Amino acid sequence: MITRITLVFAVSLLLSVGCMKKNGAADNGTMSTADSMKAAYTALSAAWDADKVDEFDKYVSTNMVEHNPFPGQEPGLAGLKKMASGMKAGFPDQKTNIDAMYVDSNILVARSSMTGTNSGPMMGMPATNKKMTNVMGIDMVRWENGKFVEHWGLFDMNAMMMQLGLMPPPGAPAAGGAMPDKKKM
Asked: What predicted TM-score, i.e. pTM, was given to this entire model?
């Protein structure tokens, strides 16, 4: 006869195994898909900061689709590598901090902040030698067959440009001009 304790243990075991499968954990102890995606994104971010663009091949599909390209960014993995190297040239000391990561099915969403000194040319502009701090970015990437295949992203370009002195803060007069007279509007 099965005791009550044995029955409770058996039901608990079945429920925990069922929950592990539902959350993506494999039966053989391998990393779940969510954990694989988070590890790949973290490694990709580290490779970005270290200007090791050849490591991108491990995490990003060759024909990755970029839905929000930077100005002048070419398509695919090659375009991503070129853009990342260009950013690193403009900000040799850039560091990215991953503030939060969430996974839902095959989509990873990450919020990060970037810091660095603009000591090199960037997007055709000369260095400002000014620092950007905690400029926020949000990435949403789709995972397929062990690599990121699609990317949507937002980067607070306005905050970066204001911190670098390339754009006036909200409400400030534009370079070389005065604020419009509200009475005449």
From this structure: 0.76
